[in-house]
Amino acid sequence: MSMDMWEPFFQSNLAHLPKASEKIVFDRFHIMGHVVKAVDTVRKQEVRERLNPELKGSKYLWLYSKENLPESQRQRFEALRAMNLKVGRAWAMREELRTLWHATALEDA
User: Running DSSP on this structure, what letter comes out for residue 67?
Assistant: First the structure.
């Protein structure tokens, strides 16, 4: 069963459905929403820590998926990624997690 991550809803399902913990799968939309927020949190921290002017105005670049990045922004984004930033690593992990949804077997996932 795929379900929303709202805590009261989740707890109600655990309480009322037999073996619910074995059957519940959180949906992609909500999982990826949390991951996108985490990437942005890392970006904010890094902006505060580094005070790096190159990071200024980069928020939306980190929110794009690789294939949806506008061509006009690719060069700037690649330069930022080459800087070995924490947000760059967080973005790369998010991109890797996106492949999970295409796994056809448990072992692949």
Answer: G
